[in-house]
């Protein structure tokens, strides 16, 4: 292994590197383990391995500089205060998954380390500095957070949380997990797959979400419309120059986004469910970790959307079943009412027929009178020649003159109903 040598010591320099430190430098020379030998109370970087400089940035690969000057972003961070404490107390310190913000501005990144600070002493036992040994655990930490967040999303889906809640939570989760700032958007495909509707985009401006709600799927329709049409990921690293964004370039500029990577969300049968997009404030080329993150959560979104569609289909089927059951119940009630009415009518008809038969039998048994019965209160001495009857079962015998008069009056004056009666009423006039 090749060690990184420190500067040649001068009278103003801290104590020279001891042989034990030389051994450590040799041991960690080409290792992925971060190693640095710091000297004095200002923690001057006396020596460090390539992994240390690769971690803080190759443009800062120099020694003989106080750590706070070499890495000004450490000001106010706990790691620097711990170095001061170890130098003051002489007691070593070890920490796991220590969060460190590296770099500044657009190049700032969050990193995690397992760190050990060990006091360095000279032959007389005097504290001269601190040895820093660390292993970057950023990927492991992010993976653990990813798995925890992913598990939480799956639990939401399993308990049938509303789709909007699941997608919004997923978008926020990715925005928190991504090593560099991203703005996440999920669009949902219409049933015909020809248009995309707003699903979730918690960090994009409302005017932007409204403008793209309902965009068509097709070749060259931004990143998402094209990804949906192709059924394949589409990476646009610079919206300002990409022809896919010609129609939406001004809109993207007002929203402050400069790159967009879109991944189609597909069902298990290959049908389109929507798109999953990651926007960036500056033009960017995706890293493998970015694309892996997109694939993982596109699959999660597919699970949530399919579950939502299944629930919608089940709810619609249940609604149709309830409507059919209610209609059947209404038809059954109507049929019962009609049957009851028919039975009442049949009973009435049977009763009327029985009454008519009884009246007819009574009339048939009655002897023919010798004198007209239709003469009214004054009577009529003429012979009874003609028998008349009505639908109520009443009958009488009369002379031709009074029979004709009765027929005329019954047809033009009387209404044959139960209140007014028929021939019997005429006879009692």
From TrEMBL:
The keyword Coiled coil applies. Pfam families: GAF_2, PAS_4. Gene3D superfamilies: 3.30.450.40, PAS domain. Residues 325-359 form a coiled coil. Residues 158-315 form the GAF domain. It comes from the Bacteria. Keywords: Coiled coil. The keyword Aminoacyl-tRNA synthetase does not apply. SUPFAM superfamilies: GAF domain-like, PYP-like sensor domain (PAS domain). This is GAF domain-containing protein. It comes from Micromonospora auratinigra.
